[in-house]
Amino acid sequence: SDVCSSDLAGGVQLLRDALAESRAHFGEDSLSTAYLYNDLGTALQQAGDMSSALQAATSAWDILRRLHHEHTEQGLNALNNIAAMAYYTGHLQDAEPRFREAVALRRELFGPSAALAALLNNYGKLLLKLERPQEAEPLLREAAQMSASYTGPDSFLAVASRLSYAQALTANGRPDAEAETQGTLELAKAKYGDKHLLTAAAELAMARLRFQQKRGAEAMPYLDAGEATAQALGAPGQGVLAEARKLRQAYTAGSSSS
Question: What's the pTM value of the predicted model, to 2 decimals?
Answer without folding.
Answer: 0.90
